[in-house]
Design brief:
Helix content: 25-40%
Strand content: 5-15%
Radius of gyration: 12 Å
Shape: globular
Structural class: alpha/beta
Strand order of the largest sheet: 1-2-3
Order of helices and strands: EHEEH
Number of strands: 3
Largest sheet: 3 strands, parallel
Oligomer: single chain
Distance between the termini: 18 Å
Length: 70
């Protein structure tokens, strides 16, 4: 999971996870991630799960997708 804005190394780990076909969630509370002009092209790949809203909504999304909280 990537929580934006990320620090040093975030995109390196993102690339490694992408290359290993790991499930990737990107969290951007205000939806800034949807701005194609200011974000990485990789954020918009179909295998990337974009998450917005509160942290509780993020956790609900992750739980509904992969069931980590049960």
């Amino acid at each position: 999971m990537i929580i934006l804005p990320g620090g040093k190394g975030t995109h390196i780990e993102f690339g490694i996870a992408l290359g290993q076909s790991k499930r990737i969630f990107i969290y951007s509370p205000g939806g800034e991630i949807n701005n194609f002009e200011t974000t990485s092209t990789f954020y918009h790949l179909p295998e990337i799960e974009k998450c917005f809203g509160t942290v509780n909504e993020l956790m609900d999304t992750i739980d509904s997708k992969i069931g980590l909280l049960n």
